Amino acid sequence: MKVHCVGGGPAALYLAILLKSQDPRHDISVFEKNPEGATYGWGVTYWPDMLDTLMEHDAPSARGIQEHSVRWSDGVAHVRDLTTVHHGDEGFAIGRHRLLRILTERAASLGVQVNFDRAVAPGDPLLDADLVVAADGARSALRERYADHFGTRVAPGRNRFVWLGTTKVFRSFTFAFVETGHGWLWCYAYGFDGQHSTCIVECAPDTWSGLGFDTLERDDALRLLEKLLAEPLEGHPLIGRTDVGGPAQWQHFRTVTNRVWSRGNMVLLGDAAHTTHYSIGAGTTLAMQDAMALARALRDPAGLAPALGEYERVRKRALLPLQSAARHSAGWYENLTRYVDLAPHQMFALLGQRHSPLLPYVPPQLYYRVDRAIDRTQSLRSFKRWLGPRIARVLQNK
Fold first, then answer.
1. Is-contact 168 72, C-beta < 8 A?
2. How far apart (Å, rounded) are the C-alpha atoms in residues 40 and 211?
3. β-strands 131-134, 266-268: how paired?
Protein backbone atom coordinates (compact mmCIF):
# COMPACT_ATOMS: atom_id res chain seq x y z
CA MET A 1 0.00 0.00 0.00
CA LYS A 2 1.21 3.51 -0.81
CA VAL A 3 0.64 5.80 2.20
CA HIS A 4 1.29 9.53 2.31
CA CYS A 5 1.16 11.17 5.75
CA VAL A 6 0.76 14.94 5.72
CA GLY A 7 2.27 16.43 8.87
CA GLY A 8 5.39 15.33 10.70
CA GLY A 9 4.15 15.20 14.29
CA PRO A 10 4.10 12.19 16.65
CA ALA A 11 0.86 10.82 15.18
CA ALA A 12 2.09 10.60 11.58
CA LEU A 13 5.58 9.39 12.45
CA TYR A 14 4.32 6.71 14.80
CA LEU A 15 1.75 5.51 12.28
CA ALA A 16 4.51 5.25 9.67
CA ILE A 17 6.64 3.21 12.09
CA LEU A 18 3.81 0.81 12.90
CA LEU A 19 2.67 0.32 9.31
CA LYS A 20 6.22 -0.27 8.05
CA SER A 21 6.82 -2.73 10.90
CA GLN A 22 3.62 -4.60 10.03
CA ASP A 23 4.54 -4.92 6.36
CA PRO A 24 7.88 -3.68 5.00
CA ARG A 25 6.38 -3.70 1.49
CA HIS A 26 4.30 -0.61 2.31
CA ASP A 27 5.55 2.51 0.51
CA ILE A 28 5.24 5.19 3.20
CA SER A 29 6.18 8.87 3.04
CA VAL A 30 5.79 11.62 5.62
CA PHE A 31 5.65 15.27 4.53
CA GLU A 32 6.37 18.01 7.07
CA LYS A 33 5.98 21.66 6.04
CA ASN A 34 8.62 22.94 8.48
CA PRO A 35 12.39 22.44 8.28
CA GLU A 36 13.89 19.57 10.23
CA GLY A 37 14.15 20.42 13.93
CA ALA A 38 11.71 23.36 13.73
CA THR A 39 8.78 22.66 16.01
CA TYR A 40 6.63 24.49 18.54
CA GLY A 41 6.28 23.44 22.14
CA TRP A 42 8.73 22.52 24.85
CA GLY A 43 7.99 19.30 26.68
CA VAL A 44 5.08 16.87 26.40
CA THR A 45 3.72 14.62 29.12
CA TYR A 46 2.61 11.01 29.29
CA TRP A 47 1.72 8.54 32.03
CA PRO A 48 3.29 5.22 33.11
CA ASP A 49 0.77 2.96 31.38
CA MET A 50 1.52 4.69 28.07
CA LEU A 51 5.17 3.64 28.27
CA ASP A 52 4.08 0.01 28.64
CA THR A 53 1.82 0.40 25.61
CA LEU A 54 4.64 1.90 23.54
CA MET A 55 6.89 -1.03 24.47
CA GLU A 56 4.24 -3.46 23.22
CA HIS A 57 3.90 -1.71 19.87
CA ASP A 58 7.48 -0.74 19.00
CA ALA A 59 10.17 -1.48 21.55
CA PRO A 60 13.06 0.41 19.85
CA SER A 61 11.25 3.77 19.80
CA ALA A 62 9.84 3.13 23.28
CA ARG A 63 13.31 2.56 24.69
CA GLY A 64 14.50 5.82 23.13
CA ILE A 65 11.55 7.69 24.62
CA GLN A 66 12.13 6.14 28.04
CA GLU A 67 15.85 6.95 27.98
CA HIS A 68 15.26 10.65 27.30
CA SER A 69 12.27 11.18 29.58
CA VAL A 70 12.19 12.67 33.05
CA ARG A 71 9.89 11.37 35.78
CA TRP A 72 8.04 13.10 38.57
CA SER A 73 6.07 11.59 41.44
CA ASP A 74 4.62 14.60 43.27
CA GLY A 75 2.29 17.46 42.52
CA VAL A 76 2.94 20.89 44.05
CA ALA A 77 0.57 23.85 44.19
CA HIS A 78 1.53 27.41 45.15
CA VAL A 79 -1.50 29.53 46.07
CA ARG A 80 -0.66 33.12 47.02
CA ASP A 81 2.13 32.61 49.60
CA LEU A 82 1.13 29.06 50.60
CA THR A 83 2.34 25.75 49.20
CA THR A 84 0.83 22.28 49.35
CA VAL A 85 2.20 18.96 48.09
CA HIS A 86 0.36 15.87 46.90
CA HIS A 87 2.48 12.71 46.80
CA GLY A 88 2.04 9.89 44.30
CA ASP A 89 1.14 11.76 41.09
CA GLU A 90 3.60 9.89 38.87
CA GLY A 91 4.14 11.02 35.30
CA PHE A 92 6.76 11.47 32.59
CA ALA A 93 7.80 14.26 30.25
CA ILE A 94 10.05 14.44 27.21
CA GLY A 95 11.13 17.36 25.05
CA ARG A 96 9.03 17.61 21.91
CA HIS A 97 12.15 18.11 19.76
CA ARG A 98 13.70 14.97 21.24
CA LEU A 99 10.52 12.94 20.77
CA LEU A 100 10.26 13.90 17.12
CA ARG A 101 13.92 13.10 16.54
CA ILE A 102 13.52 9.64 18.07
CA LEU A 103 10.45 8.87 15.95
CA THR A 104 11.98 10.35 12.77
CA GLU A 105 15.15 8.29 13.12
CA ARG A 106 13.20 5.13 13.88
CA ALA A 107 10.90 5.67 10.89
CA ALA A 108 13.84 6.33 8.56
CA SER A 109 15.63 3.20 9.79
CA LEU A 110 12.62 1.16 8.66
CA GLY A 111 12.60 2.71 5.19
CA VAL A 112 10.00 5.46 5.65
CA GLN A 113 10.70 8.54 3.51
CA VAL A 114 10.54 11.56 5.84
CA ASN A 115 10.46 14.83 3.89
CA PHE A 116 10.93 18.23 5.55
CA ASP A 117 10.22 21.68 4.14
CA ARG A 118 7.43 20.18 2.04
CA ALA A 119 3.94 21.56 2.50
CA VAL A 120 1.08 19.57 0.98
CA ALA A 121 -2.05 21.54 0.12
CA PRO A 122 -5.39 20.35 -1.24
CA GLY A 123 -4.99 19.44 -4.90
CA ASP A 124 -1.29 18.58 -4.55
CA PRO A 125 -0.23 15.60 -6.75
CA LEU A 126 1.24 14.01 -3.63
CA LEU A 127 -2.31 13.29 -2.50
CA ASP A 128 -2.40 10.57 -5.15
CA ALA A 129 -1.84 7.57 -2.88
CA ASP A 130 -3.76 4.53 -1.67
CA LEU A 131 -4.16 6.22 1.70
CA VAL A 132 -3.71 9.90 2.57
CA VAL A 133 -3.36 10.61 6.29
CA ALA A 134 -4.25 14.17 7.29
CA ALA A 135 -2.11 14.58 10.40
CA ASP A 136 -1.44 18.27 9.87
CA GLY A 137 -2.68 19.51 13.22
CA ALA A 138 -5.66 21.26 14.74
CA ARG A 139 -5.73 23.78 11.89
CA SER A 140 -5.43 21.06 9.24
CA ALA A 141 -5.58 22.51 5.73
CA LEU A 142 -6.65 19.16 4.27
CA ARG A 143 -9.50 18.82 6.74
CA GLU A 144 -10.63 22.40 6.22
CA ARG A 145 -10.88 21.85 2.46
CA TYR A 146 -13.60 19.27 3.17
CA ALA A 147 -14.89 20.65 6.46
CA ASP A 148 -18.53 20.23 5.46
CA HIS A 149 -17.99 16.56 4.74
CA PHE A 150 -16.09 15.94 7.99
CA GLY A 151 -18.59 17.98 9.98
CA THR A 152 -15.79 19.96 11.62
CA ARG A 153 -16.65 22.01 14.69
CA VAL A 154 -14.20 24.31 16.44
CA ALA A 155 -15.09 25.68 19.89
CA PRO A 156 -12.67 28.28 21.29
CA GLY A 157 -12.15 28.34 25.05
CA ARG A 158 -12.72 31.49 27.08
CA ASN A 159 -9.32 31.84 28.75
CA ARG A 160 -6.06 32.96 27.19
CA PHE A 161 -2.87 30.92 27.44
CA VAL A 162 0.72 31.06 26.25
CA TRP A 163 3.12 28.11 25.95
CA LEU A 164 6.59 28.98 27.26
CA GLY A 165 9.84 27.40 28.40
CA THR A 166 12.10 28.20 31.33
CA THR A 167 15.54 27.27 32.62
CA LYS A 168 14.00 26.57 36.04
CA VAL A 169 13.87 22.77 36.31
CA PHE A 170 10.68 21.75 38.11
CA ARG A 171 11.16 18.36 39.76
CA SER A 172 7.44 17.98 40.43
CA PHE A 173 4.40 18.84 38.34
CA THR A 174 3.83 22.35 39.64
CA PHE A 175 0.85 24.71 39.68
CA ALA A 176 1.21 28.33 40.75
CA PHE A 177 -1.77 30.65 41.26
CA VAL A 178 -0.99 34.37 41.56
CA GLU A 179 -3.49 37.10 42.43
CA THR A 180 -2.92 40.31 40.50
CA GLY A 181 -4.69 43.66 40.52
CA HIS A 182 -6.70 42.44 37.52
CA GLY A 183 -7.61 38.94 38.67
CA TRP A 184 -5.88 35.57 38.87
CA LEU A 185 -3.07 34.30 36.67
CA TRP A 186 -1.63 30.78 36.93
CA CYS A 187 0.85 28.41 35.37
CA TYR A 188 1.39 24.68 34.89
CA ALA A 189 5.09 23.76 34.91
CA TYR A 190 7.11 20.55 34.60
CA GLY A 191 10.70 19.65 33.74
CA PHE A 192 11.38 17.66 30.61
CA ASP A 193 15.13 17.32 29.98
CA GLY A 194 17.12 18.12 33.11
CA GLN A 195 17.83 21.67 31.94
CA HIS A 196 14.46 23.12 30.96
CA SER A 197 10.80 23.03 31.87
CA THR A 198 7.55 23.73 30.12
CA CYS A 199 5.61 26.62 31.63
CA ILE A 200 2.06 27.17 30.37
CA VAL A 201 0.55 30.43 31.62
CA GLU A 202 -3.21 31.00 31.62
CA CYS A 203 -5.61 33.70 32.74
CA ALA A 204 -9.12 35.00 32.15
CA PRO A 205 -9.70 37.51 29.31
CA ASP A 206 -10.17 40.48 31.66
CA THR A 207 -6.93 39.67 33.44
CA TRP A 208 -5.09 39.29 30.13
CA SER A 209 -6.18 42.69 28.86
CA GLY A 210 -6.02 44.37 32.27
CA LEU A 211 -2.34 43.44 32.61
CA GLY A 212 -1.68 44.74 29.11
CA PHE A 213 -0.86 41.45 27.41
CA ASP A 214 -3.08 42.45 24.49
CA THR A 215 -0.55 45.15 23.52
CA LEU A 216 2.81 44.14 25.04
CA GLU A 217 5.57 42.94 22.76
CA ARG A 218 6.89 39.44 23.42
CA ASP A 219 9.97 40.41 25.47
CA ASP A 220 8.02 42.88 27.60
CA ALA A 221 5.31 40.29 28.21
CA LEU A 222 7.92 37.72 29.29
CA ARG A 223 9.50 40.18 31.74
CA LEU A 224 6.10 40.94 33.29
CA LEU A 225 5.31 37.23 33.61
CA GLU A 226 8.70 36.62 35.21
CA LYS A 227 7.86 39.26 37.80
CA LEU A 228 4.41 37.83 38.49
CA LEU A 229 5.75 34.27 38.75
CA ALA A 230 9.00 35.21 40.51
CA GLU A 231 8.44 32.87 43.47
CA PRO A 232 7.96 29.57 41.60
CA LEU A 233 10.53 30.54 38.93
CA GLU A 234 13.13 31.40 41.61
CA GLY A 235 14.69 34.06 39.40
CA HIS A 236 14.92 31.94 36.23
CA PRO A 237 13.89 33.48 32.90
CA LEU A 238 10.96 32.51 30.73
CA ILE A 239 11.66 31.65 27.10
CA GLY A 240 9.24 32.42 24.26
CA ARG A 241 9.11 31.08 20.74
CA THR A 242 11.97 32.31 18.59
CA ASP A 243 10.35 31.42 15.26
CA VAL A 244 7.76 34.22 15.46
CA GLY A 245 8.04 37.95 16.01
CA GLY A 246 5.70 40.56 17.39
CA PRO A 247 3.48 40.11 20.45
CA ALA A 248 3.65 37.06 22.71
CA GLN A 249 1.70 34.16 21.23
CA TRP A 250 -1.34 34.14 23.53
CA GLN A 251 -4.09 31.88 22.25
CA HIS A 252 -7.56 30.55 22.96
CA PHE A 253 -7.52 26.77 23.13
CA ARG A 254 -9.53 25.37 20.20
CA THR A 255 -11.52 22.20 20.85
CA VAL A 256 -11.81 20.44 17.49
CA THR A 257 -14.33 17.69 16.80
CA ASN A 258 -15.41 16.01 13.58
CA ARG A 259 -18.61 14.15 12.78
CA VAL A 260 -16.75 11.71 10.51
CA TRP A 261 -13.03 11.03 10.24
CA SER A 262 -12.57 9.82 6.67
CA ARG A 263 -13.42 10.80 3.12
CA GLY A 264 -12.65 8.24 0.45
CA ASN A 265 -8.96 7.43 0.87
CA MET A 266 -8.29 10.34 3.25
CA VAL A 267 -8.37 9.88 7.02
CA LEU A 268 -7.88 12.28 9.94
CA LEU A 269 -5.33 11.53 12.63
CA GLY A 270 -4.35 13.22 15.90
CA ASP A 271 -5.22 16.89 16.38
CA ALA A 272 -6.69 17.07 12.88
CA ALA A 273 -9.40 14.68 14.13
CA HIS A 274 -9.82 15.89 17.72
CA THR A 275 -8.21 18.04 20.38
CA THR A 276 -8.41 17.80 24.17
CA HIS A 277 -7.58 20.66 26.52
CA TYR A 278 -3.90 20.80 27.48
CA SER A 279 -4.76 20.76 31.20
CA ILE A 280 -5.24 16.97 31.12
CA GLY A 281 -1.82 16.45 29.52
CA ALA A 282 -2.98 13.84 27.02
CA GLY A 283 -2.60 15.35 23.53
CA THR A 284 0.53 13.48 22.43
CA THR A 285 -0.63 10.23 24.02
CA LEU A 286 -3.98 10.39 22.24
CA ALA A 287 -2.31 11.15 18.90
CA MET A 288 -0.07 8.10 19.21
CA GLN A 289 -2.99 5.95 20.34
CA ASP A 290 -4.80 7.06 17.17
CA ALA A 291 -1.83 5.76 15.20
CA MET A 292 -1.97 2.43 17.03
CA ALA A 293 -5.69 2.04 16.33
CA LEU A 294 -5.38 3.00 12.66
CA ALA A 295 -2.45 0.63 12.09
CA ARG A 296 -4.39 -2.17 13.75
CA ALA A 297 -7.50 -1.48 11.68
CA LEU A 298 -5.51 -1.46 8.43
CA ARG A 299 -4.63 -5.12 8.98
CA ASP A 300 -8.22 -5.91 7.98
CA PRO A 301 -8.14 -7.74 4.64
CA ALA A 302 -11.70 -6.60 3.86
CA GLY A 303 -10.43 -3.31 2.40
CA LEU A 304 -9.76 0.32 3.17
CA ALA A 305 -13.29 1.57 3.81
CA PRO A 306 -14.12 -1.01 6.52
CA ALA A 307 -10.73 -0.42 8.14
CA LEU A 308 -11.22 3.36 8.32
CA GLY A 309 -14.72 2.87 9.69
CA GLU A 310 -13.44 0.55 12.41
CA TYR A 311 -10.66 2.96 13.33
CA GLU A 312 -13.16 5.80 13.72
CA ARG A 313 -15.54 3.72 15.85
CA VAL A 314 -12.78 2.48 18.16
CA ARG A 315 -11.20 5.87 18.73
CA LYS A 316 -14.43 7.81 19.17
CA ARG A 317 -15.51 5.33 21.83
CA ALA A 318 -12.15 5.53 23.62
CA LEU A 319 -12.08 9.34 23.48
CA LEU A 320 -15.54 9.91 24.94
CA PRO A 321 -14.58 9.93 28.65
CA LEU A 322 -11.35 11.82 27.97
CA GLN A 323 -13.12 14.55 26.01
CA SER A 324 -15.56 14.91 28.89
CA ALA A 325 -12.68 15.09 31.37
CA ALA A 326 -10.92 17.72 29.26
CA ARG A 327 -14.06 19.82 28.96
CA HIS A 328 -14.62 19.78 32.73
CA SER A 329 -10.94 20.42 33.40
CA ALA A 330 -10.98 23.52 31.21
CA GLY A 331 -14.19 24.63 32.94
CA TRP A 332 -12.57 24.30 36.37
CA TYR A 333 -9.92 26.85 35.41
CA GLU A 334 -12.46 29.11 33.74
CA ASN A 335 -14.28 29.19 37.10
CA LEU A 336 -11.18 29.37 39.28
CA THR A 337 -12.65 31.93 41.68
CA ARG A 338 -15.13 29.24 42.80
CA TYR A 339 -12.26 27.27 44.35
CA VAL A 340 -9.28 29.54 44.93
CA ASP A 341 -10.29 30.77 48.39
CA LEU A 342 -10.47 27.26 49.83
CA ALA A 343 -7.65 26.10 52.11
CA PRO A 344 -4.74 25.15 49.82
CA HIS A 345 -4.98 21.41 50.55
CA GLN A 346 -8.71 21.50 49.80
CA MET A 347 -8.20 23.48 46.61
CA PHE A 348 -5.50 21.05 45.46
CA ALA A 349 -7.80 18.12 46.21
CA LEU A 350 -10.52 19.63 44.04
CA LEU A 351 -7.93 20.49 41.40
CA GLY A 352 -7.35 16.74 41.23
CA GLN A 353 -11.12 16.23 40.91
CA ARG A 354 -11.56 18.83 38.14
CA HIS A 355 -12.50 16.13 35.61
CA SER A 356 -15.63 15.27 37.58
CA PRO A 357 -18.93 16.09 35.83
CA LEU A 358 -20.53 16.56 39.28
CA LEU A 359 -18.09 19.11 40.72
CA PRO A 360 -19.56 22.19 38.95
CA TYR A 361 -22.97 21.45 40.49
CA VAL A 362 -21.98 20.76 44.11
CA PRO A 363 -20.73 23.42 46.57
CA PRO A 364 -16.94 22.99 46.73
CA GLN A 365 -16.73 22.53 50.51
CA LEU A 366 -19.48 19.90 50.43
CA TYR A 367 -17.88 18.09 47.49
CA TYR A 368 -14.55 18.02 49.32
CA ARG A 369 -16.05 16.53 52.51
CA VAL A 370 -18.09 13.93 50.63
CA ASP A 371 -15.15 12.97 48.40
CA ARG A 372 -12.86 12.47 51.41
CA ALA A 373 -15.51 10.31 53.09
CA ILE A 374 -15.90 8.21 49.94
CA ASP A 375 -12.15 7.69 49.63
CA ARG A 376 -12.04 6.27 53.16
CA THR A 377 -14.45 3.47 52.17
CA GLN A 378 -13.31 0.85 49.65
CA SER A 379 -16.81 -0.05 48.44
CA LEU A 380 -17.70 3.61 47.84
CA ARG A 381 -14.38 4.20 46.03
CA SER A 382 -15.21 1.36 43.66
CA PHE A 383 -18.70 2.72 43.10
CA LYS A 384 -17.24 6.18 42.37
CA ARG A 385 -14.88 4.73 39.74
CA TRP A 386 -17.79 2.84 38.18
CA LEU A 387 -20.21 5.78 38.23
CA GLY A 388 -17.93 8.57 36.98
CA PRO A 389 -17.48 7.43 33.35
CA ARG A 390 -21.18 6.67 33.03
CA ILE A 391 -22.18 10.13 34.17
CA ALA A 392 -19.63 11.57 31.72
CA ARG A 393 -21.16 9.65 28.83
CA VAL A 394 -24.68 10.81 29.71
CA LEU A 395 -23.63 14.48 29.93
CA GLN A 396 -21.50 14.22 26.75
CA ASN A 397 -24.51 13.01 24.77
CA LYS A 398 -26.81 15.80 25.92
1. no
2. 25
3. parallel
